[in-house]
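Morning run. Coffee first, then this:
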Amino acid sequence: MISTAAADTRDQGLRRGIGAFGLAAAIVNIVIGAGIFSLPAGMARSAGPYALVAYLLCALAMGAVVLCFAEAGSRVPTSGGTYGYVEAAFGPLAGFVAGVLLWLSCVLAAGGIASAFADALGGLVPMLQTPVVRAGVIVVILASLTLVNLAGVRPASRLIAVTTVIKIIPLALFVLVGACFVHPANLSAGVVPDAGGIGRAILLSLFAFQGMETALGASGEVADPTRTLPRALVGAMAFIALFYIAIQLVAQGLMGATLAGSHAPLADAMATIDPRLGLLLVIGTAVSMGGWLGSDLLGAPRVLFAFARDGFLPGALGRVSSRTAVPTTAIVTHALIAALLAITGTFETLVVLSVLSACALYAGGCAAAWVLRRRGVAMVGTPLTLPWLGFWTLLGCASMVAVILLAQWDEIGGLAAALVGSCGLYWVARRIRSPA
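And here it is:
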């Protein structure tokens, strides 16, 4: 189990400068990513008019996970987020596996979003579509956001807060304006799905909901964590759930059965009202991608940093800048790997594995919350104590296992391979740390 002394060692040199609004903005920014601009069409293809049912089921499952994470985060507010919770509850092997899956999911997602960002710009400016120029766009966007994160957590969280507001404006406009033009008959239009379609829709919606674990990677830099972490997490995820449901409802109401065939559903839906509004949603997509990458670079590198501080990775990744108090090498390393993935364009084939990895992480985090409560772990101050924690733990774990079982067997096999591979990496790292 992590002790208070171990947490102090891991987070030594970091500044707790992230407040409730900054953390909530980071969570909103990274969860409401580029996917929400295209997700309504995928939901309609899988679940038809029952897409809202899939959203509600996913929101219920994620609500249980969020409550468990809120308590676990208040008890173990250390760098790495879920990695820290699981390690404190179940030991270093389980923590290492959780951390590896968390970081892999983050860096693959970052590569995919950066690639999509370059493709989106290429659609607006054709000259950016050539391989060399496209690679240059990827490097420039990631390098720019890396420089902001290297300047310190406060500039990074300010940028995230600004991009979150800018991104929310076109989405809020979509909901508020689009709601005035909804055709009630469209809400029931579309092909009635089978159970498999509903299951696939739940997988898609979970992909849209995941991401809070990335922002929580910077927990070691959160001010007054026993209050800030629960308030920011619960508030942000409640807002996101309501926002997603409203967006799907308006998109379905504007486009009806044609929603399933759209490649840019929000832009197409707004274009039915006014083409200029459709262009606004295209711009919102680009801002969303950039903001998502900024949040990823704030949270995900802290997992590498935590691994290095715990002796599982080279010590350079655990060094903190004396001037800005951020893990410089970890941030740059994460950005470089994300850039390589974006340029080679390998993320698309691993989307479902990313979702399944998140499910495994969420189940582990829920179980960790219950164990941490039973053991009375409290690293800083008085932690949050939720009523009915056992129920939320059971609901969260069972829901995540159920979602995993919705995937294809080869996809589940990929998750199993990742788990086994992580265990192998742990034993190799342990042998290197403590040679016989």
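The CA atoms of residues 396 and 414 lie 22 Å apart. Good start to the day.
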